[in-house]
UniProtKB/TrEMBL annotation:
Keywords: Glycosyltransferase, Transferase. This is Glycosyl transferase, WecB/TagA/CpsF family. It comes from the Bacteria. InterPro entries: WecG_TagA_CpsF (IPR004629). It comes from Candidatus Sulfuritelmatomonas gaucii.
Amino acid sequence: MTFSDPNAAQLGIRAADFSDLRRGAATTDSRFDHGRADVLGVKVSAVDMKLSLDLADRWIAAGEPGYICVTGVHGVMEAQKDSGLRRVLNDAAINLPDGMPMTWLGRLQGFKRMDRVFGPDFMAAMCQVSVERGYRVFLYGGKQGVAQLLGEILQRKFSGLQVVGTYTPPFRPLSFEEEASLFEQVAEAKPHIVWVGLSTPKQERFMAQYAHRLNVPLLVGVGAAFDYHIGAIRDCSGWIKRAGLQWLHRLMQDPKRLWRRYLRNNPAFIWRVTCQLMGLRE
């Protein structure tokens, strides 16, 4: 079925979205076709929260391994100096627009209904879908004890959510023994979703490397969402997010770790995007 199918309305997709959906690169299965905005060579999915949830739900139902990235300015700028990371982002089943700059650029390219999909919000909404569908979830990442605490919090918040396992990886590549342990846990738990809470670009590379080896329908890299949901990072008000200033809210909470990232990335991103919009670079 394609998105022009008359039954698409039953999936919560508006007819007015069809032109947006057709603009992007085609996937191997038309059920998952959706538009993608070009942000400095990174193909960011032209979706909103509703369409993101629908696509993820259908991907899980199809049962083929894949992964979802959640990409903002930091991810796009990391991809400028790492072509391998850019391929990982562009090969994602869905590359969610995590940040208003992604949304603004997508709308300038004609994707009028593209909207920001914040990683922690997507995780929460997908947990509700998981309760309704009976999907089992596995939590991978975070510091020692974070995944276990997160599992308890999510199960309290989403009654009936099946958290079937957690794994706290070391701050280095997995050893052969650690890989074997992870594979064994995942095979026994049989999750539909593995939530990956590592930093960018570590989590994106992990998902690309292990998606098919874990043989799980969907891996989702949500970065700091683990810390948001356990309360280690404070969320900001909606108007700050809509103004594109959440980076400033994050910076104020953790200036020692984040000031170099924002000082380097934000001006460079604005300059490169300006050049792209003016046609001075591809």
